[in-house]
Amino acid sequence: MSLWSLRKALPTAAWIDLTKPQSPLAQVLLSAPFKDESKGQSDEQIDVDILKVWSLLHCAGKPADKTRALYCILQEGGFEKHE
């Protein structure tokens, strides 16, 4: 995922900094911790699964709901494929 595709998915004013590559938000999202080395992502890409986990850690919500969402990220196929 690129900054531009993320901005298209998040078109609200809160995410306007995604259009500014030098903004702190863009710099954090384009940093090494948001890349999966095994996928060979470019400097302009953000790993979607890493972004999802980061988002889960920083959003409001019940721990049980966050646990279910994290399981679905980590286990390919989620609850449908794993008992």
Give an overview of the whole structure:
- With 83 residues, this protein is an all-alpha fold.
- The chain has one domain.
- It has five helices and no strands.
- It has helices spanning 3-9, 24-29, 48-58, 63-74, 78-81.
- The radius of gyration is 14 Å and the shape is globular.
Shape: globular
**Uncertain segments of ≥5 residues (pLDDT<50)?**
none
Percentage beta strand? under 5%
Give the beta-strand count: 0
Q: Give the N-to-C terminal Cα separation.
A: 30 Å
Mean pLDDT comes to: 86
Order of helices and strands: HHHHH
Biggest sheet, open or closed, and with what strands and sense? none
Q: By helix and strand content, what is the structural category?
A: mainly alpha
**Helix-residue proportion:** 40-55%
Q: Over the alpha carbons, how many angstroms does the gyration radius reach?
A: 14 Å
Separate helix tally:
5
Number of domains: 1
Summary keywords:
globular; 83 residues; mainly alpha
Summed up:
This protein has about 80 residues and is mostly helical. It is built from five helices and no strands. The termini are far apart.
